[in-house]
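Please check this one:

***
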Amino acid sequence: MAAAVYFSEKFSEDAIGRLFERALADTAGRIGREDRVAVKVHFGEEGNSRFVSPANLRPLLACLARHHADHFLTDANALYRGSRHNATDHLALARRHGFGALGVPILIADGQRGEEEAVVPIAGRIFRSVRIARLIAEARALVVVSHFKGHILFGFGGAIKNLGMGCGSRAGKLEMHSTLKPSVGEGCTLCGRCVEACPADAILLGEDRAAIDPEKCEGCASCIAACEFDAVEIPWMALASSAVMERTAEYALGALNGKPCVCVTFINNIAKDCDCMADSELIGRDVGIVASVDPVACEQAAFDLVRAGHGGVDIFKKATRIDGTHILAYAESIGLGRRDYALVRL
């Protein structure tokens, strides 16, 4: 049976509340009153203003509070250095962007340096286990609030990317992006912090820079977190876009891990680039909001609505030259959800 995807063209408090209430009801009592619910969001990045705003979260959180007492806002640290590189800076950014005013606990799911993780077994084609941020792995249910926009590697990003890349620990993010190990570049000052942080004793100090032994490296990304000089280089483009999508879909499977989940995706401020970057050009008009208990159906509906609202044109592929629908097909093939859905307009 196709999952219901609820859709509203309005962004009012009432519309958001009704939309979320309908989707939450489809969990059919699987979320208990005292169950710990992780509300996975993106707190934005310095210079970015297009993330889902705290004002749009308020009616959703009010509805959640009426049903489930124990919930918190969360995200995991970024792989790259920036305002979300560690928990201290990440929390400060969330407060600057107004999330602290919501009166809900804000917790960074993978700890101070992205090291707190749970290894979750999955029946994937690429992975047999994935490394999920600890607090997300320990939660009994998930609410995944996403912004639908373009992305340089994915074509577009929404619920599936938020579940996969967004819920992975720092080591997990590295694993999704590349099969290669990090290396040390010209910015190295020989401070030795990466050597101290490496649990595998895979780093030695040379004459002009540190060196990482790829045979010993476990891919934990501790060196990336430890280096304050951006000297540890991440092989971002070592995999084809489609391969990164597939690995991310399998991580989404591990993040979900059979838990009840409600996905809410805001289709507005459609930018060319993701919310991890400073504001980029807008490539489409506002469409509305979708919500569903099926992340794949939710993502497919968001894509279909954007395409229908732009004369049948895939604006994401036009802007990025990436076919983002590959992640939908792969996610369905591994059992994350189904692409067919019943659209319910509210």
